[in-house]
What does this fold into?
Amino acid sequence: MKLKKISIVAVFLLLLGGCSFDMPNILKGNIYDFFVKKEPVKSTPEALYARGTAEYQKGSYKKAREVFVRLKEEYPLHELAILAELGIADSFYSDKEYTDAEAAYRDFATLYPTNENVPYAIYQTGMCHFVQIGAIDRDQTETIKAKKEFEKLLALFPQSKFSLLAEKMIRECKTKLAEHEFYIGDFYFKQKKYNAALKRFEGIARDFAGVGLDLKVESYIAETRARLAEEERSLKLKEEKEKAKSKGKETPKP
It folds into this structure.
């Protein structure tokens, strides 16, 4: 029986003789371990981050996200795991999945409040809303939300380079809100609902001065007030005529 076992091993070694395997290393352990599939070697955090970045730059946002998630899971305490959080958020944003992107940016700012990239995360949160702003005749909820995030960034990190960008975006938001209000005011004006129109125009002059509509709004305010005054005069004249007519009917004939 022993001789049979030795023969089997000998035949196996002879079969491998023509191959380029490192026989001494194989024979160091159990020969049957040679057939066991080895687990793949884990990539380093740096290699994973570089790979995720490369996939992102190629426009393969889903693949990039998968690599960044893997980095987070395999090396949760590594400093690159924090940047991977941003990589995940950016991949959602670039993939136009703005709801998921906003949630990821908010999570980053909440989990790492002292990280140097928090201003960027807040700025991108605002951009998630800004890129979804509709036409001036549509609801402007996204504009309001974007403006709020940019103002938050400016208040918390006034010295950040992203605050400079936020100032520009706040102006953009104000312009869009002013144009929306003017659109509504002009609609009321054309419908001869001058009180409602004046309310909108005066609101623009009060809340959105300096966004490029000042002269136009002033002109409309003046014209709307003139129309209102004309309406008031016409109404007063009509009332006087009605009064005179009613008085004439009451006067007895001689």
